[in-house]
Design a protein that fits this description.
The chain is mostly beta strands. It contains no helices and eleven strands.
Length: 117
């Protein structure tokens, strides 16, 4: 299974960040699979942001819920994170990730996003 993040590396404050994860080797609709976005700001721990489930249901960490959405394109086997009203604190390496049953766990290589004017 391979996951590949794509999107702009630089976003201006107050804009909306959009990142897409393209998946190969598995389907984002596979039963009991959960497709997440996780980020790591510089010098800080990993932060789980939210997921879109195989069913299409989404869930977000409360601190980001009001600014976050995750959608999917099943034909392209992709899922997309949108984070609105970004600030400098949203600068991070962003990863897409899958966890599923039977147990499997895969990460994308990560993509750096810098918020700067």
């Amino acid at each position: 299974v391979q996951l590949q993040e794509s999107g702009p590396g630089l976003v201006k404050p107050s804009q909306t960040l959009s990142l897409t994860c393209t998946v190969s080797g598995d389907s984002i609709t596979t039963d009991l699979s959960f497709w997440s976005w996780i980020r790591q700001p510089p010098g800080k721990a990993l932060e789980w942001m939210g997921f879109i489930a195989y069913s299409g249901a989404t869930y977000f960490t409360p601190s980001l819920k009001s600014r976050s959405s995750i959608s999917r394109d099943t034909a392209r086997n992709q899922f997309t994170l949108r984070l609105s009203s970004v600030t400098l604190e949203d600068t991070a390496v962003y990863y897409c990730h899958v966890t599923a049953t039977p147990p499997r766990d895969y990460w994308g290589q990560g993509t750096q996003v810098t918020v700067s004017s």
